[in-house]
Amino acid sequence: MRAFLLLALWVLLTTFTPRLPPRREAPPAISWIALEPVVIDPTAPGRTRFGGLRFLGGWSLASNDPRFGGLSALHVEGRDVLAFSDAGWRVHFPVPVGGRGKVRAQIGLLPDGPGASGGKSGRDVESMWVEGASLWLGLERRNAIWRFDRASGRATSDAEPAAMARWPKNRGPEAMLRLRDGRFLVFAEGKGEGGEVILFAGDPAVPGTPAKTLRYLPPAHYRTTDAALLPDGHALILNRRWTLLQGFTSKLTLVDLAGVRAGAVLRGREIADFRPPLLSDNFEGLSVTREGGRTIVWMTSDDNYVPLQRTLLLKFAFAG
Q1: How many domains does the chain have?
Q2: Neighbour tally for 160: CB within 10 Å
Q3: What global pTM score does this model have?
Q4: Weakly modelled stretches of the chain, pLDDT under 50
Q5: Residue 211 sits in a domain of what CATH number?
């Protein structure tokens, strides 16, 4: 029992204590990511339906590059995966196809940004929105939103909105959505009624953009870690919990954003629950794509650069 408690304490401290990725060794000349297929339910490997999702495939990711890991924001588009780590590293690689193998990866820093390059205190990326030629990043610890030119990676605007100034330094902005009318929703990593959301009238990376406060009510004891828009305008919200007995568990909720306004309380309908024996980890990245007429949901996990955790990439078809 004492050994178990010591192990649990170590996991707790290493999971939630700020750190940098290992940097004692130089990055390799060519970075690659090794793909190892995973099953989502080890007790029933043939099972594919999980609530409102149908499992299409999943991979455990590892790399020869020590900068790889800590993935906290995800964008899948076409044949490309773009992710950012909580130390500011930009990770780009092809969408996995098939089983075990290796793919080339591009890992580096944006040429612009706050704080020290590669430092968690300065470039802790927790949320992302990609649209057209622009890329928005939500930076925890600074409670800032930066907009970049997608092609060059150069910053085009940045702000530390007053509405987010009092958020705890390690609790947001965890998720970011752009609504069809151009407004933005930015979520703090709150739980219960503490799940504060800021509704921006326009671009949150522009200083002085008008903002109002509302709330998101996550499942009991869970915290928001990411969000994505479905084609019909509803939002998928990724929610995470950690306990000594179960470790990480996650829930996906479906939220109707019609008529979203200041003072509203957003409530979601649970569509998937990831808990043992299902595969689960520190899921912090969510993305939605279209493929062959189907809506595809992607999830990735943040391994915190801890050997006991994994970087997972899971693919589902949304079944409602």
Answers
A1: 1
A2: 14
A3: 0.91
A4: 1-7, 9-10, 12-20
A5: 2.40.128.630
